[in-house]
């Protein structure tokens, strides 16, 4: 027997988020949306009605709608919601069992990467730096905003590729990683390629380019942590490398991370589904 959705609670003086989602697809079982930056997927903290879930329920007058997965409030892109309670389990299991294919796009500095403290870097087209496979152990403690990496069994894997060229086309080629194709890194290891510990003072640090990210796992903040660990923090990230205290109504600098494509075999029809976000990146 399916659970009955709880009635909407009334929220007084809830901050408004002035961005709307676009419906990419719908049928009798699911609704797929293109979520904008800043809009939470589900109620949390000060937001209830200004969330994708509650707006969907109110738009369709279907209180049983449930998310099949989630995106961070800061991240834009494709999100799947289940409207048929009997189908909820099958669609949610697609994501829990990693039977979906996701591609993200982001904007980050166009400069040599640094060697992370933990985990491994594997060049997939040596001697070129990109594409590379980044593997590490990521932990997210309850009540702590940032996730972090530590030594131990790997639980997070991301393939990172170069995307569009940098805004400033001068010196856009990443420098080679020294050493073997697959490198294990620890807390005592320095930078990869040229020394860039003082990247903030390097003129190249202002140059930006797009990257394509292909997560093989789904740890909290995985893409943001992996990019930051390489010395390539995603543009507009209020969490990495350091927490930026923003006003709740400051929408001036969105995180340049978009869940661009989502693919899976429909668990009912077997048909291959592919959805593409149209949210632009700001290079």
TrEMBL record:
Name of this chain's protein: RNA pseudouridylate synthase
Domain of life: Bacteria
All copies of domain Pseudouridine synthase RsuA/RluA-like, residue ranges: 30-229
Parts of the chain that traverse the membrane: none
InterPro entries: PsdUridine_synth_cat_dom_sf, PsdUridine_synth_RluA-like_CS, PsdUridine_synth_RsuA/RluA, RluA_PseudoU_synthase
GO biological process entries: enzyme-directed rRNA pseudouridine synthesis
Molecular function in Gene Ontology: catalytic activity, acting on RNA; pseudouridine synthase activity; RNA binding
UniProt catalytic activity: a uridine in RNA = a pseudouridine in RNA
